[in-house]
Amino acid sequence: MKLLILNGPNLNLLGTREPEKYGNTSFEDHFSKLQFKFRNIELSYEQTNIEGELISLIQEARKVFDGIILNAAAYTHTSVGIGDAVAAIDIPVVEVHISNTFSREDFRHKSFISPNAKGVIVGFGLQSYDLAIESFIKNE
Ligand code: DQA
């Protein structure tokens, strides 16, 4: 099984960005742990700060991967285009967030991804990604 982890804006700063909300670990470090923990799964990882690049990566992923684990970060709450891209593809997308967006500002309660996601995992720190991968294994 091939899964793409796709991270949106500012998630390249994980480890140093607001550590009280997002922890002290860089995503690169966590990704290495994921690759070891889920060594039977072919995991890929991309990050971009650019909305249109996220849309292109979602479109291209549909030809290559069995599913996407998507943390669109701030674009989750603003991007009709990313929501439409998720609706347009027929591989499953699991939406993840590191922080519990529902315990934060009201504008973080809205997601343009969720209506077309297979499921949503919110608030477990970087473990949200582990749980998202496990959701694919159970459905194999
Ligand atoms: C986030 C939550 C978003 O509201 C925020 O803009 C992020 C990260 C999370 O993983 O907790 O950048 O997606």
Oligomer: single chain
Largest sheet: 5 strands, parallel
Number of helical segments with 4 or more residues = 5
Order of helices and strands: EHHEHEHEEH
Number of extended strands: 5
The CATH homologous superfamily corresponds to Dehydroquinase, class II
CATH top level label: Alpha Beta
Helical content (DSSP H or I, runs of 4+): 25-40%
CATH topology: Rossmann fold
> Per DSSP, what share of the residues sits in E-state strands of 2 or more residues?
15-25%
End-to-end separation? 9 Å
Mean of all residue-level pLDDT scores: 96
Side by side, the strands of the main sheet go 2-1-3-4-5
Give the overall form: globular
At CATH level 2, the architecture is 3-Layer(aba) Sandwich
Number of domains: 1
Class per helix and strand makeup: alpha/beta
Task: Explain briefly what this protein structure is.
This protein has helices at 19-22, 27-37, 51-61, 80-88, 127-138, and strands spanning 2-7, 42-47, 67-71, 93-97, 119-122. The protein has 140 residues and is of the alpha/beta class. The N and C termini lie close together (9 Å).
Structure description:
With 140 residues, this protein is an alpha/beta fold. The chain has a single domain, classed as Dehydroquinase, class II (Rossmann fold, 3-Layer(aba) Sandwich). It has helices spanning 19-22, 27-37, 51-61, 80-88, 127-138, and strands at residues 2-7, 42-47, 67-71, 93-97, 119-122. It has a five-stranded parallel β-sheet, sandwiched between helices. Helix 4 (80-88) links the parallel strand 3 (67-71) and strand 4. Helix 3 packs parallel to helix 4. The model has no long low-confidence stretch (mean pLDDT 96). 1,3,4-trihydroxy-5-OXO-cyclohexanecarboxylic acid binds at residues 10, 71, 73-74, 76, 97-99, 101, 108.
